[in-house]
Amino acid sequence: MKAFTVDRYGKKSALRLADMPMPELRDDEVLVQVHAAGVNPLDYKIRNGEFKLFLPYKLPLILGHDVAGEVVEVGRDVRLFKPGDEVYSRLDDFRIGAFAEFVSVKEASLALKPKNLTMEEAASVPLVALTVWQALVEKAKLKKGQKVFIQAGSGGVGVFAIQLAKHLGATAATTTSTGNMAWVKSLGADVLIDYKKDDFEKVLSGYDVVLNSQNGETLERSLRVLKPGGKLISISGPPDPAFAEEIKAPWLVKQVMRALSFRTRRKAKRLNVEFSFLFMKASGSQLRQITPLIESGAIRPVVDKVFPFESTNQALAYVESGRAKGKVVIKVR
Asked: Topology of 2-125+301-331 in CATH?
């Protein structure tokens, strides 16, 4: 089968279009013919070598975390899916490989595709949807009447987070550029801050939750918009000791993560707020809870661009540029 692989880590390393063997199908897995694959910052960060510390992949590696496609074969222990089913998934770490014609997916990480979405739209959903669900529903336990600050409202995570926050009955504030103001407001954002003109920490205060997806400097400023007891959940680092325990990291890696997050944790404690790092996990059961929200129209995916399979490197570069308005997808079939 054709697939795009990482042969060596590095920012300037292009993915190579290669002939690769068909994926191994385990008893608890489903073989999916890939129709479309979502592109995420996680993909180029892995290519760049930024996650070698706790995701030590063997090279060559087929990239791609988000998939939508059709089931062609099932393992002998699979009960929920059959050949012909249209499905979508965020692939498990160490079992990624959506930038290919076929991929094996754990049954537990798979869900039937929302009926009202195309394959390309469906491929744009899993990673951002699960990230937002695990941040706002699981970790923050966001409730009706609370206030949440979501950074970068026009990005893939921001678009989904604003809509889920509104579905949950929360007030959503976000940052965006002048040109995207009206569009982000149409997603449901209540408070919009033009990041080129205003400092959000001077505008916002008394917030219950912050979803941080930007750099360390933005994270530290974000701590100041929380009320005492508020929660900042960061999906862009730094990893904290709780995450190191969760992934059963070696002793040395635990010390590195402790050191990386020390300053942020100290500042959060001084402000009487909570800081935690989230590295989302694959989950078919959570996708099955999200699917009805999409089918009912409560949440609609936003796809910025669809690239042909042969232009996978260009798709990755476009996501890395930070210009995407919503999600970027690769059409494989």
From this structure: Quinone Oxidoreductase; Chain A, domain 1 (3.90.180)
